[in-house]
Structure to design on (124 residues):
């Protein structure tokens, strides 16, 4: 599978100048379940660290913010990463998936199918 490049420094600067994101705008929050017993047992802290390091290394901290989260109620899918502003949850996330998640949500493409957790429909 071909890797998609992260946005260039110029495209990040354009997004910031258009007011899409930045210190005064809203950053996309990536919530990593680290408190649930299943997610924490499945290396969610490692996923959290890799997300933070990747965002810092790529200088994307003005666009994305990674936060620890209490249990998200999706234990059987752990470790779980929720993309707050997009309403998307990913399950079974590994350290290797972190870059794909970041790239996908910066480019505003559809969720990653193999990780996407579909919410159950409510019955009437």
């Amino acid at each position: 599978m071909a890797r998609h490049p992260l946005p260039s420094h110029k495209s990040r600067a354009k997004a910031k100048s258009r007011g899409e994101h930045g210190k005064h705008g809203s950053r996309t929050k990536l919530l990593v379940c680290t408190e649930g017993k299943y997610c924490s047992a499945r290396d969610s802290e490692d996923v959290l660290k890799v997300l933070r390091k990747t965002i810092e290394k790529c200088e994307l901290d003005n666009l994305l913010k990674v936060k620890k989260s209490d249990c998200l109620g999706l234990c059987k899918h752990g470790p779980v990463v929720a993309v707050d502003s997009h309403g998307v949850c990913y399950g079974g996330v590994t350290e290797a998936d972190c870059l794909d998640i970041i790239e996908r949500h910066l480019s505003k493409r559809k969720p990653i199918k193999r990780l996407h957790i579909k919410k159950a429909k409510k019955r009437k």
Observations:
- The longest strand covers residues 28-33.
